[in-house]
Specification:
The chain has 312 residues and is of the alpha/beta class. It is built from 10 helices and 14 strands. It holds the Pfam family ACP_syn_III.
Length: 312
Amino acid sequence: MPGSRVLAVGHHQPPGVLTNDDLASMVETDDAWIRSRVGIRTRHIAGPEETVDSMATQAAAKALATSGVPAEEIDLVLVATCTATDRSPNTAARVAAALGLAAPATMDINVVCSGFTHALATADHAIRAGSARSALVIGAEKFSAVTDWTDRTTCVLVGDGAGAAVVTASEEPMIGPVLWGSVPDMGHAVRIEGEPARFAQEGQTVYRWATTQLPAIAREVCARSGIAPADLAGIVLHQANLRIIEPIARKIGAVDAVVARDVVDSGNTSAASVPLALSKLVERREIAAGAPVLLFAFGGNLSYAGQIIRCP
């Protein structure tokens, strides 16, 4: 069985920016309160004409252009999202049509915030099994569409955007084994429910779970790949909240790693957050090509998934 690798990445964010001062005119909050609790300064918000599939398509087109892989060679499209409005055609099929792909398998994956790392593992498995050779793996969310803009505990968190990766077969495995799982009896702690659907969470429950349980799981991801935490060049965690990202990164023990902090400028973009943050690090050349990077996401369903990749 061949291995696989992330060949190229790309991202897209809507041009509209919502600042903390803007939010202060909408709900009872202010810049100091938001920064002290979640570390977010700004977030990008999609307009009515911007959809999950249009953002996913733009991110995927950038990744494809960078990769040099012809569109007709893509035989699998996976889109991680929990905010797509329509059930069929799914987002992946719409992306494939927009990009003019020939005849790929197209699937949406809903594991909320950890959707991209689940989708990346699924692409890796498909390539190793020989059922795909080149895949587009995308995380895309329009979280603003499921936000209660009168709830200051949640509306200060969210942002919209997309990130994508081109994943291809490789003689040397450059995507490590996935470690994934969930805590089913705590799945209620993060919800998008109701009609209309609205995002809600039990913030303290999520914070305690993330900061106390996840560092050990992240270290086990490293162990499965045979990479010591101290040898990591980068850490890209789900961009949930800076007050969660920083203690997890510190407890992992990757003392010299570049830690993605895109949440400060982008907010929590759910399944888009890991590929979005990774793409920006690659674009700025903050991590050397071929260096080991931990991708680890967590959140909705109280699900988690992580793997170590070699930086494209």
